[in-house]
Amino acid sequence: MIEVKNLTKRYGNHLAVDHLNFTVESGKIYGFLGPNGAGKSTTMNIMTGYLGATEGQVLIDGHDILKEPEEAKKNIGYLPEIPPLYMEMTVREYLEFAAELKGIKKDKREPQIEEVIRLAKLRDVENRLIQNLSKGYKQRVGLAQAVLGFPEIIILDEPTVGLDPKQIIEIRELIRKLAKKHTVILSSHILAEVREVCDYIMIISGGKLVASDTTENLENMMSGKGQIEVEAKASRDEMDHIIRRTGKIKEVKYRTSASGITTAQIIAKGGEDIREELFLAFSHADVPMLTLNQSKTTLEEIFLELTQGSGNRMIKEEK
Ligand SMILES: Nc1ncnc2c1ncn2[C@@H]1O[C@H](COP(=O)(O)OP(=O)(O)OP(=O)(O)O)[C@@H](O)[C@H]1O
């Protein structure tokens, strides 16, 4: 388990990470999502002990990453945004070197290297120089290095950046495989990636955590606040009369087409789903509805809303 408490990082006057608080539980895939410059890499570098914090604390299974780095780091494997590879080594030599650096006992090194070569599908290139590998393979070598020692937590900074679509699919498959036995935290600025791979999403913007929930809950949380759209063959005034009879309307906008069909976009008080009440009101007035839909806010819209200007709303409303 990782506990991040009040984590703050300043670069001179610039506040890159602004009092972050969150907990990462075991056995899930977490996605750290945010636009460029949001503070993802800085946070990951602090969580893995590569960078000191200005304020706050990171505990890995109860061990402070700065005060007890050896204990804390035992439980973490890290693939930074730019993998720390030695270009003049072969894949195998590099993994042997990494195993030694990680303090893996001699008799365990060989079987573990074999295991990560198998996992990351590096068999064909194990004796090739790293400098001659494609970007996708280099990334897999970086991942294999992060997995060596089979730490409880694996942290990956933008693991698919710069890869081609086939390589992206392969890396995502590998991440899913890893997640069966490990907690995985990955950062990305690509929403589709985080949605596809992660169980849990943390959205970071301007160094602040602006949302933190399961993908499903994030979408549901906003869908309750979504609009309801009704179409009926009636005038705007008729529609307004019927709709307001529910007594639950916060806001409504109308659009009437040349064919005499009026569309109402409704937001109910408290974001309530009032489709049943609307149906009954129209039925009572003998005005047949043509459509009745609740429009769901997409994760893209949530992401944009939270990371552009109006940010922080979701968290504030929760408190
Ligand atoms: N060493 C540094 N010195 C000064 N400012 C820095 C340094 N490293 C990062 N920053 C700034 O801190 C902010 C957060 O950067 P960070 O790299 O953590 O963001 P990020 O979310 O990982 O973005 P990206 O996806 O572009 O890597 C940015 O404004 C960046 O310019």
Overall strand count = 14
Just give the CATH class of the largest domain: Alpha Beta
Provide the helix percentage: 25-40%
CATH superfamily of the largest domain: P-loop containing nucleotide triphosphate hydrolases
Compute the number of helices.
12
Annotated CATH architecture of the largest domain: 3-Layer(aba) Sandwich
Measure the end-to-end span. 24 Å
- Strands ordered across the widest β-sheet: 6-7-8-3-9-10
Task: Give the bound compounds.
Answer: adenosine-5'-triphosphate
Domain ABC transporter: 2-231
GO molecular function, one term: ATP hydrolysis activity
Protein name: ABC transporter ATP-binding protein
Pfam families: ABC_tran (PF00005)
Please provide a written account of the structure.
The protein has helices spanning 40-47, 69-73, 91-101, 106-119, 135-147, 165-179, 191-197, 215-223, 236-244, 275-284, 299-307, 313-318; strands spanning 2-11, 14-24, 29-33, 55-60, 63-64, 76-79, 153-157, 183-188, 200-205, 208-214, 228-232, 249-256, 262-268, 289-294. A hairpin with a 2-residue loop joins β4 (55-60) and β5 (63-64). The chain starts with a strand and ends with a helix. The strands form three sheets. Strands 6-7-8-3-9-10 form a six-stranded mixed beta sheet, with helices on both faces. Helix content is 36%, strand content 28%. The protein contains twelve helices and 14 strands. The model is unreliable at 310-319 (pLDDT under 50). The protein is an alpha/beta fold and 319 residues long. Adenosine-5'-triphosphate is lined by residues 11, 14, 16, 34, 36-42, 189. This is ABC transporter ATP-binding protein. It comes from Dorea longicatena. Pfam families: ABC_tran (PF00005). GO terms for molecular function: ATP binding; ATP hydrolysis activity.
